[in-house]
Amino acid sequence: WKVLPQGFKNSPTLFDEALHHDLADFRIRHPSLILLQYMDDLLLAA
């Protein structure tokens, strides 16, 4: 998929899992940073 379907009840979960997977290397390289995911938002604290 290139986009998530609107109204699909599992879209937020699928997006969260994909984003967590994509950012895994970033989290490992920068362990002192705090990266919080909520729905389609990110909070990066350094």
TrEMBL record:
Q: Do you know which Pfam families this protein is assigned to?
A: RVT_1 (PF00078)
Q: Which PROSITE patterns did the record assign? A: RT_POL (PS50878)
Q: Which residue numbers delimit the Reverse transcriptase domain?
A: 1-46
Superkingdom, taxonomy of origin: Eukaryota
Q: Which family does it belong to?
A: Belongs to the beta type-B retroviral polymerase family. HERV class-II K(HML-2) pol subfamily.
Protein name stated in the entry: Retroviral-like pol protein
Protein's gene: pol
